[in-house]
Design a protein that fits this description.
By secondary structure, the protein is an alpha+beta fold. The chain has helices spanning 2-16, 40-46, 54-64; strands spanning 20-22, 28-33, 78-82. Helix content is 38%, strand content 16%. The protein has a three-stranded antiparallel β-sheet with strand order 1-2-3. 13% of the residues are buried.
Length: 87
């Protein structure tokens, strides 16, 4: 039963973007699940402040997720996104 509760807690954390990690540059990343209609631009806009250049945030998302120039993302896909709102 304990294992099930832990598993459910982890799945909820992943689904809500609570789990985060830091990269070698000290940036904190949050995992975000792509929803229908999302684009890399819209995800970047939701996860940065006015202090960041959105083009740099898009570059960091593409780099962290090894996305090529076509930047094809799909609903349900998990992306690492820099989380400036908690830094």
């Amino acid at each position: 039963m304990k294992k099930l509760i832990v598993l459910v807690a982890v799945l909820l954390a992943v689904g809500t973007g609570i789990i985060s990690a830091h990269d070698s540059k000290g940036l904190q990343y949050t995992e975000v699940v792509v929803r229908p209609g999302d684009t890399v631009w819209s995800i970047a806009a939701e996860n940065c402040t006015q202090k960041q250049d959105i083009r740099e945030v898009i570059h960091l998302i593409k780099e962290a997720n090894k996305l090529d120039h076509s930047v094809q993302i799909h609903p349900g896909q998990a992306l690492k996104v820099p989380n400036y709102k908690t830094n």
